Amino acid sequence: xxxxxxxxxxxxxxxxxxxxxxxxxxxxxxxxxxxxxxxxxxxxxxxxxxxxxxxxxxxxxxxxxxxxxxxxxxxxxxxxxxxxxxxxxxxxxxxxxxxxxxxxxxxxxxxxxxxxxxxxxxxxxxxxxxxxxxxxxxxxxxxxxxxxxxxxxxxxxxxxxxxxxxxxxxxxxxxxxxxxxxxxxxxxxxxxxxxxxxxxxxxxxxxxxxxxxxxxxxxxxxxxxxxxxxxxxxxxxxxxxxxxxxxxxxxxxxxxxxxxxxxxxxxxxxxxxxxxxxx
Length: 279
Ligand SMILES: Cc1cc2nc3c(=O)[nH]c(=O)nc-3n(C[C@H](O)[C@H](O)[C@H](O)COP(=O)(O)O)c2cc1C
Description:
This protein is an alpha+beta fold. It has helices at residues 4-12, 30-33, 48-59, 78-88, 109-117, 127-150, 165-172, 201-204, 215-229, 240-243, 251-259, 267-273, and strands spanning 70-74, 100-107, 154-158, 178-187.
């Protein structure tokens, strides 16, 4: 098995600090440190039994007050899968090769129904509930991913399922109070996933108090490492039609470009129509 120093260097692009207490047996940590999103799959099914086990792992995720405000739709019917691929994620050609396609949903409806069933008024149509439901759904998705990767499957989340909200709601029969957070494609990997470099812990992890004083310098050196390892090619650069091809395909340029144009500004109105009128 790869040693910790190598796993750390592959993840961050620099040497690990001297650390005490790293377990000698890295079998639990190595898969997380070496993981990457997988977008190529072998033509091989995932059994219903394994899928049920992975979904049980997803439902084992922590959940706010055990409210369990999320749902998961598994796309099983070939016609539904076909419509999902054609109408919801047409630009994601590789998704067609994934034997598993799922959609993770925040679910405020269930709590509303349970409150009504017990004779109470549900008085939490607010941003806090939306946030709790979104976090619950995301944690369930991540537990599914960790479990799937632990048994050798590869996964890639799909926020693009939110590009066609009405069509998705129609296809999956999403009732009021239910909203998508992301899709997930999964299957047996064709080739190894790439390990992508992450920001240095010094600017993500704060000790005792928030301090981003060294942000610009740390991002510049991160950009240098990304550029040396795997420059962002023109076809993966954001908004080239508007800003042109960047001379240096670096992370911060791509992030700044992506964030310079609003993404899915229609989501708030869609949530309102979906009876998620957040106060
Ligand atoms: C909520 C969420 C939505 C994502 N949506 C997409 C997507 O629509 N298409 C895609 O190719 N990757 C998607 N990804 C994968 C990210 O692009 C990927 O995690 C990121 O680039 C880091 O790469 P890595 O996972 O290989 O380390 C998504 C990831 C998350 C967490």
